[in-house]
Specification:
The complex is a heterodimer. Chain A is mostly helical. Chain A has 13 helices and no strands. An 8-stranded mixed beta sheet of chain B has the order 6-7-8-3-9-10-12-11, with helices on both faces. Classes of the chains: A mainly alpha, B alpha/beta.
């Protein structure tokens, strides 16, 4: 198990370096002079040169990259925004809880929908309920989250006044200068985004859980459990679900990471100043320390999630442990 | 009264293409402590017969009729909860493929314990002691530590031993073994068969053994039922089938037994079994039967006793002389001194 973890960690490092390097190269290729941006509008060519030197922009790209890695790894420092001089680390860490709230809440919602519906559909294939669920799945996959988000916020927020139209409230309480805060406000502001976010994934997961449960129901060991005299309920929970959830756990780990990408869109729709929002705005301004900061943070998250999923997988599937 | 009396058992499945009659009017009985072998090719309805008795066929699309009287109760009409109490306790089952029949995410010990505790309120320690005894009885070395291992840490033969331990742990009256050795190599096969025979002596269980391998039948069975395309075509005790076989299909099975004796040529049965969706008219075997004549193509032969009045039944239109001749010819071909 320890060797397994070490091997996984080494891979994580490789992954991290390739992702950040790729991002670095993209900014190098974009025909924009970051030094000019950083120096400000009224800067003279000399000022730009000074800034370029101070920001290591006059060095070859590999030196720039090594400098970036060195700063990040040794000092946990991501530099400052070119646009507003704010600490990148702070900007990212301020935005992260918002995205985390959105994504993790959505995961909970979509799993709460997908597990019962998927299992029900698998237990009664071709029944009326199953057909209704499959219709719902098709709808859920077809509806675009942004459209759904706009419609939901228009109808539920603007027309019916049931929920806030947009905006975010910190879970930890009201900060000075903010309109709202605390767990209740937080929850209230996120319900609609969660459900909108969850629709697409819930649809995918209902379909996947239905098929893995159906498949597992036909396994020989399920028949063995019945032959032992296990009641249906026990067969389902101990023998079917435990095995059927193996692929679901893997998918979940990957999808949580993917959902970070989806968050970019929904944060715009619901005016949530999360990582996606920050990343998008930094892109428009060629504010690449911020973009890079978000990429670094997101790739760390993805790597950590994958690691957790792999370890979880090894824990629930004994066959992996020795491999 | 026999332990299990099956009368006119019929099982059919509704499929998209129509109704498949998988078992068509089977009647047999299993006496206490005896072994009944059900023999036939793949898809002839052997396994479905046993799953019907166990009530393990899929519920939605299965139609079962007839009777299966086990200790004064008809298993086919028993309420689900009553049937659950019978399964794994009074009747238990071993399956063909030990590689897939154990749950991969639970330890062997946990699966054995589950079998005990589903039927008996026993504290965990006592149940574990019982599991340990059973695992030792089926000959798994280092039983103590192996209880905490997972199925993938066992070889095929060892897994089948675990399955047998699990099936016998509640001391059932009847053990149904569905091709228990098919997935195993020959030496392991012999070990498993010996184990089953020995445990039968120790525990006194009756066994229904499903197999397509007459070699396995020869080692274990007291009575034999030969099935072809959902129907019984010949049944009788061990010696009836091996020494006085009366049906051309049984002859075919016997001559397709590989033998190491010099000069004995292996004679497979030509063709493949018919579709049960649209079985052929008359005798279902007539398309592959070298002895078939006109009547076989139109009339269904009834299952009737041999003229000596024994319990030896066969369903064939051939006349008595032809059956005698056939039996002798086959016997001459397959016996190499003594018992086969």
């Amino acid at each position: 198990m320890i060797r397994y973890i070490i091997r996984r960690l080494l891979w994580a490092v490789v992954l991290f370096i390739s992702v950040t390097l790729a991002t670095y190269l993209i900014f190098y290729i974009i025909p924009v002079d970051p030094a000019r941006l950083a120096a400000g509008k009224a800067a003279s060519p000399h000022d730009v040169q000074v800034v370029a030197h101070r920001l290591y922009l006059d060095r070859p790209i590999y030196e720039q990259y090594l400098h970036f890695l060195d700063r990040l790894v040794l000092h946990f420092d991501l530099g400052y925004s070119y646009a507003n001089r704010q600490d990148v680390r702070e900007t990212v860490l301020n935005a992260a809880p918002i995205t985390a709230s959105l994504v993790l809440g959505a995961v909970v919602v979509w799993m709460l929908i997908a597990v019962p519906v998927g299992v029900y559909s698998a237990l009664r294939p071709r029944s009326l309920g199953d057909r209704a669920a499959m219709t719902g799945v098709l709808t859920g996959i077809s509806v675009h989250p942004v459209w759904l988000g706009l419609i939901a916020s228009y109808i539920l927020g603007y027309k019916l006044n049931l929920f806030p139209i947009q905006g975010y409230c910190a879970f930890t309480g009201r900060a000075p200068g903010e309109a709202c805060g605390g767990p209740i406000d937080w929850f209230y502001h996120l319900i609609v985004p969660w459900f909108v976010f969850a629709v697409l994934y819930a649809a995918f997961y209902v379909r996947m859980i239905r098929s893995t449960v159906l498949e597992t129901l036909n396994e020989d060991y399920v028949r063995t459990a019945r032959a032992k005299g296990a009641p249906e309920r026990r067969v389902l929970v101990h023998h079917v679900l435990r095995n059927a959830m193996l692929p679901v756990v893997t998918m979940l780990g990957m999808d949580v990471a993917l959902a970070l990408g989806g968050a970019v869109l929904l944060e715009q729709v619901f005016g949530l100043p999360g990582l996606g929002y920050v990343a998008l705005h930094s892109l428009f301004q060629y504010d690449y320390p911020i973009t890079l900061g978000v990429v670094v943070f997101a790739s760390i998250l993805v790597i950590v999630f994958n690691l957790i999923v792999d370890l979880l997988y090894a824990w629930i599937d004994p066959r992996i442990r020795l491999a | 009264m026999a332990l299990l009396e099956v009368r006119d058992l019929k099982t059919s499945f509704k499929t998209d293409d129509g109704i498949v009659q998988a078992v068509d009017g089977l009647t047999f009985s299993v006496e206490k402590g005896r072994t009944v072998a059900i023999v036939g090719e793949s898809g002839c309805g052997k396994s479905v017969t046993c799953l019907s008795i166990m009530g393990l066929n899929p519920r939605q699309n299965t139609i079962t009729s007839g009777e299966a009287i086990f200790k004064d109760r008809d298993l086919l009409t028993l309420p689900a909860e009553e049937m659950r109490k019978v399964r794994g306790n009074e009747i238990s089952m071993i399956f063909q493929d030990p590689m897939t029949s154990l749950n991969p995410v639970h330890t062997i010990g946990r699966q054995l314990l589950e079998a005990v505790q589903l039927h008996e309120k026993l504290p965990k320690q006592a149940a574990r002691r019982r599991a340990l005894e059973m695992v030792k009885a089926v000959g798994i070395p280092r039983a103590e530590t192996r209880l905490d291992d997972y199925p993938h840490q066992f070889s095929g033969g060892m897994r089948q031993r675990v399955m047998i331990a699990m099936a016998l742990i509640n001391n059932p009256d009847l053990l149904i073994a569905d091709e228990p050795t098919t997935a195993l190599d020959v030496t392991t096969q012999a070990q498993i068969l010996n184990l089953m025979n020995q445990l039968q002596r120790d525990f006194g269980s009756a066994i229904i053994l499903i197999t397509h391998d007459l070699g396995v039948v020869a080692e274990t069975a007291d009575e034999v039922l030969v099935m072809y395309a959902a129907k019984a075509i010949e049944q009788g005790d061990y010696s009836d089938i091996f020494y006085r076989a009366r049906h051309p299909y049984t002859w075919g099975l016997l001559s397709s037994l590989p033998r190491l004796a010099q000069g004995a040529e292996l004679k497979p049965i030509p063709g493949a079994p018919p579709s049960l969706l649209r079985p052929p008219p008359g005798c279902r075997f007539h398309l592959r039967c070298a002895y078939a004549f006109d009547r076989c193509r139109t009339d269904v032969p009834p299952l009737q006793p041999a003229p000596d009045g024994s319990a030896h039944l066969d369903a064939c239109h051939l006349d008595e002389a032809a059956k005698q001749r056939g039996a002798e010819e086959i016997l001459g071909r397959i016996t190499v001194g003594g018992r086969l």
